[in-house]
Every structure is written in structure tokens, then in C-alpha cells.
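Hi R.,

Quick one: here's the tRNA (uracil(54)-C(5))-methyltransferase sequence you asked about.
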Amino acid sequence: RLANMVTPLWRLPYQEQLQVKYESQRKILQTLASRLEELGIDAQKPGGLCCPLRPVVPSPVINGYRNKSTFSVNRGPDGNPKTVGLYVGTGRARNIVCVKANHLENIPSKHKQVAQCYEEFIRRSPLDPCILFHEGGHWRELMVRTTSCGQTMAIITFHPQELGQEALATQKALLKEFFTCGPGRVCDLTSLYFQESTMTRCSHEQSPFQLLHGEPHIFEEVLGLKFRISPDAFFQVNRGGAEVLYQAVGELSQAGGDTVLLDICCGTGEQWPLSKIIGIEVVEKAIEDARWNAAFNGISNCEFHSGKAEAMLPQLLSSWEDARPLLAVVNPSRAGLHYRVVRAIRNCKSIRRLLYISCKPEGEAMRNFLELCCLSDPGKKLAGEPFAPTLATPFDMFPHTVHCELVLLFTR
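And here's the predicted structure, written out as C-alpha cells:
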């Protein structure tokens, strides 16, 4: 049942999975075309699409491709509240159970091994799991990150409740001992982190990631470049797929040597062969990684800004007087881009090409597409010339699931 929920396409041959994804992307482009028609924009192209749609680019790795997995702690199907796995069921019906991820094709065996060891540790612990914050308990989720060179980072989230510093120090020492000298040493962790968190999700600034053992970072190689990864930095979940995606983005951008790239939501800072790269990212640790990555790889044409894109971008572009062509690449979360970011891009005459990388094009990204392409509207402070969708290329970054990454090129 878990496999059918998390990886619903796992029984289909891979070529059929790609066909399913192609059809879903085709419907999204048809929807965009009809929504633009409603706004008075002639966007219908052959097949009712708003622009040509290329075939889905396959993932070079089909099984065990995830380099990051998050496991929850909750009641298992047997009723044991100290079960580490993935949720099945709905919160509203209060029928959630936590099921082990052993049968999932997309999660590597190393992640499953660390989850199994964490479960063994918390079952030995006298402390309760934290299932609902107000009901007490301490042990919460586990995140595992791995790299292609065999490094493994584990991050354990813990609700401190009323525990004092001494009691917390004891738990951290027990955890470290288990993973370095006890049964957990089979995981061969490169980094073991601990975060005391009283919220569903905490940034490093809200509650620091505490290194209990090993190295502060793990390292990954993409297209011959070395990337440093912090506990909460964004990095594409499918490394092999990311290499294919970044190569294609470089080709789609058609950027000359004098082009300046504006990389919005840049994560750890992908590098492109351009005259200058400006990156903006909200996660401060990711920006530290991006600066290290650029310096380590001998890339000196980058500048990175830490902060919310909606705060940073308008001031950056309002003072833009550079004569070089400006190419924007945006890779937002599922929440899409803030309206102020879209407005700043629209109103900057230097941006003629925009690459929008969306992990959920049918969601909030659709609102962004319409904002980018709608007619100028002084009431909404959209003075700039509208963009038009020009080419769509889907990438399968998540085999066995229904998800697809869509790269949509907009020009004006």
C-alpha cells in the first residue's frame, strides 16, 4: 500500500511511466493555453498547447536515486509508537500509521539501513516518541542525505519539552555512542547531526544543527564540479537527473559569453559558463555553501545574496544599469514565486529570456506563468512587456512517482 501511494507507477515499465508523465505535462500546457486565452492572449498552438512540448527526458538512474529521505516517527501497523518510516493515512481521519520504507524502489538501501538503526535506538530509549507536540514525547523525524562518493549524513530532530541541558547532553551522548560504537556503526555515518526543535520545521537560525559526530559537510560532484552540502541546504534529490537537467538548462538559455545570469532560489549554487552569475537564496547556510563551491571550483564570476527573493530582487533590479543581456533562471519551491519577484522580473527590461524550473507546474507555478504572460496592468504595477511561453521540456527526476520537473522557457 505504501509503494502504491508514494511510488504509484512502480509496476509500469519505465517507457510507460515516461508516457504517463508526458500526457500530464501536455494537459498542463493545454490548461495554460486556455487560461491565457481567457486573459485575451492568443496562445493556442498546434494540439491546443501554449508552446512546443519536447519528450520527457529520462532519468539516468531509475531505482534508489534519492539522495535525501525524511522518515517520520509514529505508530506502526502493529501499534508500536516507535516506528520509523513514512506516513500512510490522513490526519483528519486520525488513521495515520507509519510504515517502513523497505519496499520503496526510489529510496536507496543506505537510507533504509539508517532508518532501521534509528528505530532500534529509540525502541531502546526510555524516552517517548513525540507524535503530537502537546502530548509530550521527544524522538521525532530522521533525515538521511547521501552522496555518490559514499558519504552519509543523518539529522535527528528531537523535541526538548521540559528537559534541562544535562538531560539533553545525556541523550546526545547516547545517540553518538550508538552510531559510533554500538549497532548503528554499520551505517558508517560521515556526519551525525541533532536538532532540538519545538516546531514542525526549524531553520538553522531558529534552532542550530548540532554536530554530534564526524564532518560538518558532505560533498557531491556534478558535471565535474564539487559541491559542499550543509544539513538544510537544497540540493536536487536525483543527482544523475540533475546533471542532465543542468546541461539542458545551459543549452536552453542560449546565453553568450557576455550574458549575466540571475539565479533565483539558487540553493548551493549551480555554475554556468557565463560572464557573471548572481545568486539569491533564502537559506543562509546554502549561500555559505554556494560561496565555498564557487571558490573551491575556481569560479570567480559569482556573487551570492542571502535573503528572501521578494526582498532582494526588486532592489537589485531597480538599480540595474548593466548593458549586458540578463538571463533569469528561477527554481522555486512548490509555493512558487512571490508576486513581488514576478513583478520585478516583468518590469526589468534587460530580462528577455526566463527559464522557470517547476517541480509542480499544475500548482502555484501556474499562477506565476499567468502573471508573467498577462497584458501590462498599471493597477497591479505590471508595466513591463509580457513574456510568452516558447518551449517546454519535462525532466523525469522522480521515477516511479507521478512527479515531473518542467523547464519552461519564456521569451519576450
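The first strand starts at residue 68 and ends at 74.

Cheers,
M.
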